[in-house]
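lol forgot to send this yesterday, sorry. struct tokens for the thing we talked abt
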């Protein structure tokens, strides 16, 4: 019976939950079993988290006596998510164009990733909006191995905020106003916007663990002790004229919690503005709190005060039936924390509006083999029967082979008649591909310079440096002529000033040279420029190739005993730079040359 059930596993940072669902009358989702197990909350134990998860899942599976395909979700922290708008396309072209966008947007090679996408919006929309998600294959395999090591097979592999979104749509079909779900976990908080068929998600690296760390730091106690005190006496201090708690320590702790949540509130406001300005969404008119980190008393009052909209606790079991084996009173008390589990249960039942599936590569290969297994088995049986029969009926087999050969020769003769038609169709296909290539290239290059300026601007945290010239380079040659002088001379000669700096022929933009000025009144000197360069090196979406490469292979250089690839030195990238030692100006010059990786270089012809 267990193998026929719909099994869902919530892989939380501090809690593992395992639920068993079934479909009731009229397709209603039924929660048949539910158990959970806590993990060590201390961040120092993160290195052993996968081992803890494996042990917890094994204990839950043994206690509940379940096995079979299990659906689980990966955290949004480990997944690259991007919402992309495309022009109207035929269904046949969509996979190809989204593949091009994935190559452009995903910050790591697709050969090392597992990715999927979901189309959004309504039919008839001017543009097609696509949600693109990708995760490194190695990281996904590690999580998948934890689940499979306890006797489970891999079912659907979802993304945590999408599972919560599916649970919301199932439980609140009557809500059609703009909604914000604040899914607060231990290590991160997912903001999920739902508005009709439109939705948007963003992950913030702030969760309930940050509140515990703030308490630990404020009171000088260990993390585990701070977590215990937070669970026993913690609540969010109310603003305004509310009286403090009679216990001074509890009152102080409530204010520490409020201060920590204020930083989260600021991120929510920033994301609201981004959703409205960049995604064309509407301001949320109601908010729902969910997740295991949303259990603090007065948390909904805090967000209601800050967001100026009604705030409720999300009930993930609003339209879910509770089975006889589940303690209904106990489970309803944690209904706000079961959104991900219910969303995974809906995926297993095939009743979810968003169906991203990040299938691990090993599972994909196994599924292909499983589909072909009956054919392999039948072929093997047929071959064995043929060998056995040939021992007794050799002559009959020879006659059969001769007849079969004659039949095949007739078929070959017939098929040859179609060879010319096939060749003609192949030529037409190549011609179509040739016509579509400019469009594909346009899609790939559409956001190239936007991405370049985005990475540069994200590394500029203040106004102590600014750029005066950004020059694409081909080797040591600038693409754009020297401003004013060479440009004017080229115009006078009737030439194109944008191409005057390079000779005729084929060229490749392999680096970008930036000329700028820096200033610093804090006596830090030219350090502001080196800090800017360090931030470019540490970018989570590295656009520039700042790693030294082996000229023979083109691969990142590796030091003795497999050491990390050596970075280009500051002097190789920043040359020249005026360090301002004379202290005789308001600002000083610097030149920064940023190499581009192979996949982001642009070819052009003069």
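and heres what i got for the seq, position by position
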């Amino acid at each position: 019976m267990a193998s026929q059930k719909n099994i869902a596993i919530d892989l939380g940072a501090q809690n593992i939950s395992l639920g068993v669902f079934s479909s009731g009358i009229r397709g209603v989702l039924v929660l048949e079993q539910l158990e959970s197990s806590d993990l060590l909350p201390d961040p120092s134990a993160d290195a052993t988290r996968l081992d803890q998860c494996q042990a917890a899942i094994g204990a839950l599976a043994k206690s509940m006596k379940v096995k079979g395909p299990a659906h689980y979700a990966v955290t949004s922290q480990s997944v690259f998510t991007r919402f992309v708008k495309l022009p109207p396309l035929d269904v046949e072209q969509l996979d190809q164009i989204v593949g091009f966008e994935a190559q452009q947007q995903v910050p790591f090679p697709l050969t090392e990733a597992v990715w999927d996408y979901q189309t959004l919006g309504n039919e008839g929309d001017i543009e097609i909006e696509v949600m693109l998600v990708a995760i490194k294959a190695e990281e996904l395999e590690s999580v998948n191995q934890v689940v499979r090591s306890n006797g489970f097979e891999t079912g659907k592999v979802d993304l945590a905020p999408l599972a919560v979104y599916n649970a919301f749509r199932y439980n609140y079909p009557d809500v059609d106003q703009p909604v914000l779900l604040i899914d607060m976990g231990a290590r991160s908080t997912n903001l999920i916007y739902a508005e009709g068929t439109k939705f948007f998600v963003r992950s913030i690296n702030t969760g309930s663990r940050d509140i515990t760390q703030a308490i630990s730091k404020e009171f000088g106690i260990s993390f585990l002790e701070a977590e215990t005190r937070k669970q026993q006496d913690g609540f969010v201090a109310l603003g305004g004229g509310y009286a403090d708690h009679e216990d001074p320590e509890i009152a102080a702790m409530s204010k520490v919690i409020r201060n920590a949540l204020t930083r989260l509130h600021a991120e929510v406001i920033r994301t609201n503005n981004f959703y409205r300005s960049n995604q064309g969404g509407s301001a949320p008119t109601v908010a729902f709190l969910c997740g295991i980190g949303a259990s603090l008393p007065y948390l909904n009052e805090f967000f209601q005060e800050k967001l100026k909209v009604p705030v409720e606790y999300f009930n993930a079991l609003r339209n879910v039936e509770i089975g006889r084996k589940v303690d209904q009173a106990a489970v309803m008390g944690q209904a706000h924390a079961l959104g991900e589990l219910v969303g995974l249960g809906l995926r297993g039942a095939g009743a979810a509006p968003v169906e991203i599936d990040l299938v691990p590569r090993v599972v994909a290969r196994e599924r292909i083999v499983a589909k072909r297994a009956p054919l392999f088995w039948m072929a093997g049986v047929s071959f064995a029967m043929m060998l056995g029969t040939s021992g007794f009926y050799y002559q009959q087999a020879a006659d059969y082979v001769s007849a079969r050969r004659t039949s095949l020769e007739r078929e070959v003769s017939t098929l040859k008649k179609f060879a010319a038609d096939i060749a003609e169709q192949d030529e037409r296909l190549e011609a179509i591909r040739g016509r579509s290539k400019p469009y594909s290239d346009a899609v790939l290059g559409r956001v190239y310079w936007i991405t370049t300026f985005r990475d540069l601007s994200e590394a500029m945290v203040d106004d102590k440096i600014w750029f005066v010239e950004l020059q694409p380079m081909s080797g040591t040659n600038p693409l754009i002529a020297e401003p004013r002088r060479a440009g004017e001379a080229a115009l006078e000669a009737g030439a194109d000033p944008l191409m005057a700096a390079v000779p005729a022929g084929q060229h490749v933009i392999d680096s970008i040279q930036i000329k700028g000025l820096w200033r610093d009144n804090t006596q830090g000197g030219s350090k502001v420029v080196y800090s800017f360069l360090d931030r470019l090196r540490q970018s989570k979406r590295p656009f520039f190739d700042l790693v030294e490469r082996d000229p023979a292979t083109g691969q990142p250089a590796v030091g003795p005993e497999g050491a990390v690839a050596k970075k280009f030195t500051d002097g190789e990238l920043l040359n020249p730079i005026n360090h301002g030692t004379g202290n005789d100006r308001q600002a000083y010059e610097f030149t920064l040359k940023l190499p581009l990786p192979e996949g982001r270089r642009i070819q052009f012809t003069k």
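The domain at 1-77+137-172+318-359 is CATH 3.30.420.40 (Nucleotidyltransferase; domain 5). anyway ping me if u want another try
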